[in-house]
């Protein structure tokens, strides 16, 4: 060592005793030499340090409130440089920690390393394990997405069933009766402050006691004693690197951590599941119907955790130690079995055929799979919206979703229209996610409303009277004037003329709303079709069309199926402009000027119409 | 460079007399109070959710004409003003209810969609004969009773909410009828339905 450096170290040592500290830290005797089996505790420490580092950086970009939590995580994931990787590392390292914890714990119990004088250190270890579980529970909620929200909601609801203090405990945990800002502020304080602080406060004595008692060597020793530095530290470092590498690969493979749609208390997330390492608990609860739940959620887990704390004293005799090892095997085996069972229950419908005997199970699983698929679709869509140049409004991403026809249309259609209408894509390679196929539709199929294909089908003598069009159940139009006209007149028209009429009507549907391309193409064809409708083929005998004002009782074809036309139509189909007295059972959804008297408001109507038109 | 006075200090024992006793007592009490003061103040504000009073909102759900008396459940969002700490959300969706009007019944029955087991959202697919909870697979008949009774994971039947019909005032005395409910949030996991408020 060069002399200025030596002088500096001497000076530092004189004031702090750093040499002695370092010596004590590094020159620990390892009985029997360094071994790979001793690395697990160190990898856990490294994993925790890694979590503190990534967590601190995440914290710098995270904002805990119901309007900003999801939004800030979205920003980390999709807008910040390397943000997705940062999230991914934090997310998968949390998984790795649980796995490492299981290995570390199993090894200690298996080796009987909890025996005197190490009892207290074992107790601290079990406490540390609980703190790590607490960290993963609180962290799961912070993105405030559907998955975290609903899973945590189930978790805290269970906690509220704890005898005596349950409801109060829940109120304190979530900061009120409902989930909200204070749920996030509290969970963040727990996750980033209280629990890591507690973890450090326990980890320091855990390591100090470990050094005091020395390493619990596994007999038979493999060689002569060695020092911690550099032999064991080398192995520890390589193991730590291995863990980080594995997590890194997982994070890249997973594209960071998942982010589902923003939490919406009014929009159920039917695929809510806890993180995989808590799935066993989730499955375990299914065994306890009704009020027996308290056994599954508190009594049995409580007894097990207490037993874990007592292991060092139970294990004082050989029989006791065997009991501990047996319990360990049963617990780990039980966890594996329950987890497998939970996964099998959820994916049952994907792996098996439905039979009479498994119907209940199959349907439950199908519901889960549908919900998962739907949630993916929602998440994709809201992220697409949030990434658009419009960005997220101050009210948060949830309002993006609430005003999106693509997301709300199907729900509103199911609520208001699907009682009579269907919405089914009959073309090949159809995307079935939007299909709503009632078994006994009493009104037309509304898929592709106003498009050329749709208009062409109406004017097709073979299709006009089928169940998707005027031939639905109990239709008064099945043998009406329109069907009659299409079936008798259209076959006599040139195909070219029919195409022109189709193009013109489809162009009418584009006169308001977002379907703009329809007007730009085939201008001549459209103009020709326009003339045909107006004067030549008899449409205006019954229909009104632009300045040709006929009172034949058939719906106005001006702007036919355009946004404005449809809005007015749904408001009141019985108006003179539309079906008047010939209206079949379609209700008027907004006939009044006073919005309070109407079934649907303009915004809702707009969402349905935009979705139907595919705008 | 050892401190000359150190050995004396180490060997010195505390003589027990009234003066030292009060010295120790004061040291312990003063120290405890010094640390406890900020802690207690913090804890009190932390406990504030326990001191807040809440009430169940009355909410207009739908027009009666939206619920035909065919005995089929229809899902409606519960939209009401919602206050979350410092934010007031006007007309926010705070939950969901199923309205079922049986044949000939004047009033629909309202079920909250919150599962009495663990608070998941009970789902219903049009045409199905059961409500199904997606989480722990509880199933309920369309009248809200548990499909398998006490063998079901859920500890009680689906929770019903009080329904009230109100007629909208209009000039021609023929205003539409609205369905209002009291949106009660029930505790989960108990045999009895207990409001969280």
Automatic annotation (TrEMBL), chain A:
| SUPFAM superfamilies assigned to the protein according to its UniProt record, in alphabetical order | a domain/subunit of cytochrome bc1 complex (Ubiquinol-cytochrome c reductase) (SSF81648), Cytochrome c (SSF46626), Transmembrane di-heme cytochromes (SSF81342)
Q: Where is the Cytochrome b/b6 N-terminal region profile domain?
A: 8-219
| Membrane protein topology class | Multi-pass membrane protein
Q: Which Gene3D superfamilies match?
A: Cytochrome Bc1 Complex, Chain C, Cytochrome c-like domain
Q: Where in the cell is it found?
A: Membrane
Can you give the residue ranges of the Cytochrome c domain?
404-615
Q: Name one GO biological process term.
A: respiratory electron transport chain
Pfam families in alphabetical order: Cytochrom_B_C (PF00032), Cytochrom_B_N_2 (PF13631)
State a single Gene Ontology molecular function.
heme binding
Superkingdom of the source species: Bacteria
Concerning InterPro entries, the annotation shows: Cyt_b/b6_C, Cyt_b/b6_C_sf, Cyt_b/b6_N, Cyt_c-like_dom, Cyt_c-like_dom_sf, Cytb/b6-like_sf, Di-haem_cyt_TM
This protein's name = Menaquinol-cytochrome c reductase cytochrome b subunit
TrEMBL record, chain B:
Query: Key word Transmembrane present in the record?
Result: yes
Keywords per UniProt: 2Fe-2S, Iron, Iron-sulfur, Membrane, Metal-binding, Transmembrane, Transmembrane helix
Q: Which residues form a coiled coil?
A: none
Q: Which residues form the Rieske domain?
A: 96-166
Transmembrane feature ranges:
21-47
Which InterPro entries does the entry mention?
Rieske_2Fe-2S (IPR017941), Rieske_2Fe-2S_sf (IPR036922)
The reply on keyword Cell membrane is no
Example of a GO MF term: metal ion binding
PROSITE patterns per record: RIESKE (PS51296)
The protein's name in its UniProt record: Cytochrome b6-f complex iron-sulfur subunit
Q: Which species is the source of this protein?
A: Bythopirellula polymerisocia
By which gene is this protein encoded? Answer: petC_2
